[in-house]
Amino acid sequence: MDVLKHKCFLEELLFWTIKYEFPQKMVTFLLNMLPDQDYKIAFTKTFVQHYAFIMKTLKKSHESDTMSNRIVHISVQLFSNEELARQVTEECQLLDIMVTVLLYMMESCLIKSELQDEENSLHVVVNCGEALLKNNTYWPLVSDFINILSHQSVAKKFLEDHGLLVTWMNFVSFFQGMNLNKRELNEHVEFESQTYYAAFAAELEACAQPMWGLLSHCKVRETQEYTRNVVRYCLEALQDWFDAINFVDEPAPNQVTFHLPLHRYFAMFLSKAVKCQELDLDTILPDQEMLMKLMIHPLQIQASLSEIHSNMWVRNGLQIKGQAMTYVQSHFCNSMIDPDIYLLQVCASRLDPDYFISSVFERFKVVDLLTMASQHQNTVLDSEHERSMLEGALTFLVLLLSLRLHLGMTDDEILRAEMVAQLCMNDRTHSSLLDLIPENPNPKSGIIPGSLSFESVLSAVADFKAPVFEPGGSMQQGMYTPKAEVWDKEFDPVMVILRTVYRRDVQSAMDRYTAFLKQGGKFPGNPWPPYKKRTPLHPSYKGLIKLLHCKTLHIVLFTLLYKILMDHQNLSEHVLCMVLYLIELGLENSPEQESDEEESAGGQERCHDSWFPGSNLVSNMRHFINYVRVRVPETAPEVKREPPASTSSDGLASSQSSRRKSLQRENSGTAQVFSLVAERRKKFQEIINRNTSEANQVVRPKTSMKWSAPGATPQLTTAILEVKESILSLLIKLHHKLSGKQNSYYPPWLDDVDVLIHPEIPRYSHGDGMTAVERILLKAAVQSRLNKRVIEEICRKVTPPVPPKKISSAEKKTLDKEERRQKARERQQKLLAEFASRQKSFMETAMDVESPDTDIAMEVATSEQHVSEAIYDCVICGQSGPSTEDRPTGLVVLLQASSVLGQCRNSTEPKKLPTTEEEQIYPWDTCAALHDVRLTTLQRYFKDSSCLQAVSIGWEGGVYVQTCGHTLHIDCHKSYMESLRNDQVLQGFSVDKGEFTCPLCRQFANSVLPCYPGNNVERSLWQSHSNKCMQDLVQEVEDLQEQLGTFPVSISSETNLSKEMESVMKDIKSTTQKKYTDYSKSPGSPDNDFLFMYSVARTNLELELVHRGGNLCSGGASTAGKRSCLNQLFHVLAMHMRLYSIDSAYNPWRKLTQPMQDKNSELISEELPEVPVLYRDVSSLLLIQILTMPQPLHKEHFTCIIKVLFTLLYTQALAALSVKCSAEDRMAWKESGALKKNTSSGQKSWEVLLGHVISELSKGKIYEEGETEELTVVNPDSVECYLQQFCLPFLRITSLLQHHLFGGDLPSCQEDEEFTVLASCLGLLPAFQSAHQFTSASCLDWPVPAFDMISQWCSELASFADRHPDQVKALLIQEPKWDLPRLLQLPENYNTIFQYYHRKTCTVCTKVPKDPAVCLVCGTFVCLKGLCCKQQSYCECVLHSQNCGAGTGIFLLINASVIIIIRGHRFCLWGSVYLDAHGEEDRDLRRGKPLYICKERYKVLEQQWVSHTFDHINKRWGPHYNGL
User: Fold this and answer.
1) Which end of the chain is more exposed for a tag (fewer CB within 10 A), N or C?
2) How is 659-688 classified by DSSP, letter by letter?
């Protein structure tokens, strides 16, 4: 670090720029001059000269993040240019400066390493707790370094410069062994440090990234020299490290570090050397001793992973699991676990296999478990961890022996294997796959190594599942799922185990595999992981096969098979699975075919004491082991007499030297059993003695304490165990054990010799343990004739395995377990049976309301007619009974204000969302707007009170009532609400507003609708048609209406029921805003309430019609049978409407059924006249008539009312038609009608009636005003069609009403016959005539002569026309043609919306909103959360949701592509209707992919809006506090 000397202004300028931490203006100023070539070079040199100063300033800076970004802004411009970088490297020693600066930077935060030998360690590592590492302050400098190393010429200089390499390895060694974890053995750590984030980031960025950069330049033969250099200095640094931490041959216990960058540099350069540079591996590998040392720490990490997953590190807190997960996670794995396993594979292929295998089991602490005895003592491991550690050790061996990532797979094969592994765990989205596949971290190499692209591999292994919608409403993204043949041939459990971050993913992959096999009928049971053939090994690594053919492994496999067969404790199916996998790997990779002749007859007797004669698995499989000497506790069942002659001693006494000794020792009576470990210690010492003269260093009493002679635990004694088994016989007996049958294995080749010639049979590729055993035996037989013979022999004389003389405690346990399970099962059966019988009797007593055969509305409680009252179940107290005056039952309902109906337009094309200035949406043609205009016009010319009965409101802000169909006692509900109020858990709803969730189905609700007590009149009686004539019925209806004032007794005395009815009416009123209930000129007039109440009924009927698709062709019961609450709603409304008496003089019923006498009295009165009957909305009149009658209503009265109203409706249709005709047509109709007037069916012929209407209306000035739009062709058919279309909406509403009041299904029909079917269903059609001569007029049934009534109604219009001729036609009711409500149509491409709206200014505040949003119902542009448009504490979106949707708003957030729903005081994120090409959302537009409309999703959104089910389907609601 030299002193800076400034010679020119540029240097001075840069100095102050750095001093003031790179002010943005200075940075821009300095960069703006770069196009000048001379300046560029001068500036770059100056920048390099100040590099150390930049580092110092950066370290001191408080705003290091901002400063880092600005440094990189400059340096990336300078160092990305290869020519410039090379020049500066040559002239200014750029590489030296960078490496030195980095080294110097890290030196400021070093601490002494505690790895291995805490007291005497000389090694220093970075302290991950320091701000420098925690805040990644070093990254600008490291990223510059990585940037210049991407240039071939610069990297070459680096790799040739030995001094630089030494310095760099020195730098890397600062990270070697950082963030050391020590296992807590006593209590849980108080403070969980999170330094591991910093450690992993530092190794990845400061060590691995530069390494990948360098590796990218070592791709060809000519670069061999570079690799030799790196490997040489790497090994020197490693040797220094081993010396510094005082490492001899044993790692310190209970310590692990995940950071070994030097090992990984060494490993990755070795891999490159063999794969790309054709280097001979042995020329660059160190000696055996170094390899033994090298394998220790990576192996320690593998064992620690297993310990962490076995919960042996729980006291270290969650962070240790976090480290284990990060180590294998997709962004780190190819710089961490992959090189580690590769290094272990290299060591294994060059070291003595017995030594290596025994090291593995010692590291995993399961040596003591590997004994034939049924009981043992483990000096280093608690018994509860033994099983999972044994599984860990075996799984590690399987990984080590089957992975070929660096041992011969091509890049394309690797990519394919990685992708298959990820897809097998779970279906994946495209973006998550990109993220999960480990990429080659060198930034310049593109996303994926290899010639094949990501996409082509993806399409080869996976099928795309388009985004679907589950019925629950949760929306799936587009997913990729593995093809069937991938499951069949490529599913590789080993790769899955290597790549899973969470252990549950392995299970998930197996579950999916199981499901695939079941679905294809390939295997019905629970399959085992399939065995997958491996890519052939690269010749350099052939030594790895020796592991599979060493006696130590065979002893372990034999012991474990024996233990599993004998049911010793702490073994699992997973252990067996891995044992079989290893045997199969051994058979697949046999070193050379052994010749069967070699085996002399005396072969069996050749070695008395040893386990196996040779090291080849194929021949060892058939070797019988007769007796084994074991050390067991004195209490064990095996203790017995002296050994017979031929005995193998247990504890895996392998290798030649031990054989001789064990014999001497047995005779000498010490019964000392060699452990693997003693064996290993010796081997290691031999090597060290050979290499070093000072053998005295080796004597280390410290470790010998840990492995004290077994004699130290006196209760152990020696026993001889009779085994008489070989691996083959154990396998056959295992097959019997797994199948649960004796003699279940029968050699397949006895029936079919072909099996031996083509052993690759598909039937063995998928299956469970039995299949695996069969596959192994077949392979063993194929490989050797002797094996085949032995298998046949065993099968001939097979006997059950000899159980030990006494049942060991472990087995007793399992037996007890089985018995206990059996008993528990029986108890459970008994309980279930009892439940079932109880339930049955309960059902019989309760006459369950929801029994499917009574799908009619709820009150039809049972199908038997004699039960007169409906029975309800209370879902809170569970009792059933009728609803009574003093203890009423109620339906759980959700009341919500809705403006959906008001959004209907009279065009069939839905409006488009405006995406240019020209396109605008005007709300003039919506249903709500037209109804509004009509009411205001009527109020201008007619008496207010009569206007308010001539129309319905509720098109905007109408109250919609829906129920989940569950009932509860109203008093139970009150106590339920109390308990919710006291429950302080934050729910997604507000109890104070009366909101709750149904106690049974958890559906959102906010009120309870009382059920009217079941009537005692038998239904059949008042449904039957009586034969009274029309006149009598008309009179009866009038009389009943006259009784208005006299209330049923119950209401005059306040009962609970009437109180509840009043309170629910209050709820209904308060559901919508005041402006939607007050239409009267005199505020608070009772007419208002009257109008509001029958309009609620109208809104609910109209909405049900919309839900059925706008017509009743589909028929059937109500949309949701039990879920309809209209009947109860009518009762509540009727009860309140009868409180308002209608003055009999103004009773519309009279006007409809009696010709008036004095016509002149009206004109004299000063006030405004009443609304003419022909201007009144017939559906509204219907509801007024029905709801003001005493309930329950008789069917005959209902039919009578309909018939009368139909005559009015028909007349209105004729009047509307007459206005549409041209004058000539009118004359023609008038004349033809007059001719037929006196025929018998005159009153039922539209021609006659039309003629009459025209002649009556001509008396006023109605036809004088200018021509209106004409009907194009006026022929009889089009007239008939027009009349039917005009009357249909009324018939639909009436049919629905009849269906809800009286039950009975709606008939289904074709669209063209809807009129006739509904008319006959309503009783309007007399005897049904043949269709071809049917006319709508035949449904008329006039209570008084038709012509008198029509004249009277027309005269009202005529007198109005005299005063206001301009309004007559406008007010005539037109043919209603409303399309179903639709949301706005969205453009195909999201960019269209984004480009127009994200810079658009808000109309209110004229600024560009930070969060623009657009309403999908009406297209209004609003500021989300914008304070600029806030009015009285309401932000704009909330305000708009109240004005546009009466509290429901659907907004598209422009900058996030997400839709948000506002419902009252709550909101939720709905999701996105725009997906990318792979069917994925891009919330917040983070990935920046082109997005396209997903029509299915938009349909779902529209469906939820129309059906008012946002509250039920979307689960994540939160309060918005008016801030959206």
Assistant:
1) N
2) HHHHHHHHHHT--PPPPHHHHHHHHHHHHH
